[in-house]
TrEMBL record:
Protein name: FAD dependent oxidoreductase domain-containing protein
Keywords for the protein's UniProt record, in alphabetical order: Oxidoreductase
InterPro entries recorded: FAD-dep_OxRdtase, FAD/NAD-bd_sf
GO cellular component, one term: cytoplasm
Gene3D superfamilies assigned: D-Amino Acid Oxidase, subunit A, domain 2, FAD/NAD(P)-binding domain
Source organism (scientific name): marine metagenome
Coiled coil: none
Length: 257
């Protein structure tokens, strides 16, 4: 089977690339070892936080901020193409500290981001509790990041999968790439348990597994999986928090469902 483009990995990145390329008139095959978007993309928090923990002035930060800003139009386009609402929200996010050590770290972060000219507001404990009354009264300091946005990542996967399928993209599951096909110093295809696939362009969008594609002389990217845990809780009809809220080492993400 052949196409203009082969994308290795059908997570959010691979799906987003496919969505854009198909709209530009290219034929696309997406290869994945499992179902589209059911690995890291399905287990993520859906938080769009370009300011990160300790961002540095860099092209990467500029790219992250630009990417976040594009999400408004991206969400609208996906709604038109798939009929699925990805629940894009621009409610901002809180970072809180509940002891002296955490407060010191958060204060340093505030000063650092101020120097970078990033939007951040320092909040007193009463201001934090006014925004989120369910938080601990032991809060010492809070930072409000108005530039922190979020989406419902599972609905994002659903929207992209539907849109790519409706636009003519080809999904091949159960097809981990075992080797790259190389000729004349150019990658021209891939080998999988489902057969050989050829294309003029091959994109490695395998995410945490991007470095595990072997069988070629092409250097593998220095990427490896890092374990994380997400816990989904049904809180009934109440809404204990109203925006993404970070502590030191953990965070809470509200969902409509």
């Amino acid at each position: 089977m052949s196409s203009d483009v082969i994308i290795i990995g059908a997570g959010v990145i691979g799906l987003s690339i496919a969505h854009t390329l198909i709209r530009e008139g290219l034929s696309v095959i997406l290869l994945d070892s499992g179902e589209p978007g059911r690995a890291a993309s399905w287990a993520s928090a859906g938080v769009l936080a370009p300011q990160g923990a300790q961002p540095q002035a860099s092209p990467y930060l500029d790219l992250s901020l630009k990417s976040r800003d594009l999400y408004v139009g991206f969400a609208q386009q996906l709604m038109e193409d798939s009929g699925v609402d990805i629940e894009y929200r621009a409610d901002g996010g809180l970072h809180i500290a509940v002891d002296d050590e955490e407060a010191e770290a958060l204060e340093a972060r505030y000063q650092h981001q101020q120097k970078l000219g990033l939007p951040v507001e320092r909040l007193e404990p009463e201001d934090v509790l006014s925004l989120e009354p369910a938080l601990s009264p032991e809060v010492r300091i809070g930072l409000m990041f108005t530039g922190l946005h979020q989406v419902e990542n599972r609905r994002l996967v659903q929207a992209l999968t539907v849109a790519v399928g409706l636009q003519g993209g080809t999904f091949v599951t159960g097809a981990p790439v075992t080797a790259l096909i190389i000729g004349k110093n150019k990658v021209s295809g891939v080998e999988t348990p489902r057969g050989m696939f050829r294309a003029g362009i091959v994109i490695n969008a395998a995410g945490a597994w991007a470095g595990q594609i072997g069988g070629s002389t092409v250097p593998s990217p220095p990427v490896k999986p890092v374990k994380g845990q997400m816990l989904a809780l049904n809180v009934g009809t109440t809404t204990p928090i109203h925006r993404v809220t970070h502590g030191i080492g953990q965070y809470l993400v509200p969902r409509r469902d």
